[in-house]
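Q: I'm building a small set of examples for a reading group on sequence design. Run inverse folding on the following structure and report the sequence directly after it, with nothing in between.
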């Protein structure tokens, strides 16, 4: 039996999505989201922790929706899988980065003040899921 690599996150975008478009029209989108956890410690004091996650979108239909509709501050529920990349820095040290490769999302509509929300002339789809396409395991991200 194979293992399961599944991530579910609900958080807010820390920046606008960064889009890389290739000559053939394909896109890769990257953006950070923050998830927050609040609890009371042993002394009864409220403690809040924020965790940052790097999200990668490779699927074209989903990448186009993210590019068109998501902005800094938007709240999003997403699903995907963890992938860890390894590279060497300028000093030759091995470095690692763990990312969430998103394959499904729901835009929650919250997270920004209404006066900061850009006007949209068409309604955004709420649920977006696209089936896997081809083998993209060996691809290096361009940014």
């Amino acid at each position: 039996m194979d293992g399961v690599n599944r991530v579910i996150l609900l958080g807010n975008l820390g920046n606008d999505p960064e889009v890389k478009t290739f000559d053939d029209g394909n896109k890769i989108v990257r953006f950070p989201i923050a998830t927050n956890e609040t609890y009371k410690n042993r002394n009864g004091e409220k403690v809040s922790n924020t965790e940052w996650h790097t999200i990668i979108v490779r699927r074209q239909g989903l990448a186009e929706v993210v590019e068109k509709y998501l902005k800094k501050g938007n709240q999003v529920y997403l699903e995907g899988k963890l992938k860890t990349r390894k590279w060497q820095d300028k000093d030759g040290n091995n470095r690692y980065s763990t990312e969430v490769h998103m394959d499904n999302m729901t835009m929650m509509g919250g997270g920004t003040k209404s006066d900061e929300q850009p006007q949209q002339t068409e309604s955004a789809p709420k649920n977006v899921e696209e089936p896997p396409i081809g083998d993209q395991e060996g691809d290096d991200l361009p940014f």
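DSSP finds one helix and seven strands in the chain.
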